[in-house]
Amino acid sequence: MQEHTGTQNRCDNFASRLIFEKSRKNTFKKCPHLPDALARASPAIPELSEPEVIRHYTALSKFNDQI
Fold first, then answer.
1. N or C: which end of the chain has fewer CB within 10 A?
2. For 19, how many CA atoms within 13 A lie in the half-sphere containing its CB?
3. Contacts 24+ apart (CB under 8 A), 55-64
4. What secondary structure does DSSP assign to 17-50, as a single string?
């Protein structure tokens, strides 16, 4: 185990997982009232809750401010 000297890289404090790695499949349910003619394939975007998205972008903004 490494001993922390207090001078660590700022990147070490940053949540290193990408937003796509934090995503969970089938987070959202399909609308049962939507006709099949209007249904389409899910977009290739991460499936995260609103608080998770806010946390992610808040962490990014803090990281960018500390450069």
1. N
2. 17
3. 56/15, 56/19, 56/22, 59/14, 59/15, 63/10, 63/11, 63/14
4. S-HHHH--TT-SPPPTTS-TTT--PPPSS----H
Rounded distance, CA 43 to CA 67, Å? 33
CB-side neighbour CA atoms (13 Å) of 31: 9
Residues 6+ positions from 67 with CB-CB distance below 8 Å: 10
What is the reported pTM? 0.52
Segment 17-43, tens digit of pLDDT: 788 888 877 766 677 787 878 777 777
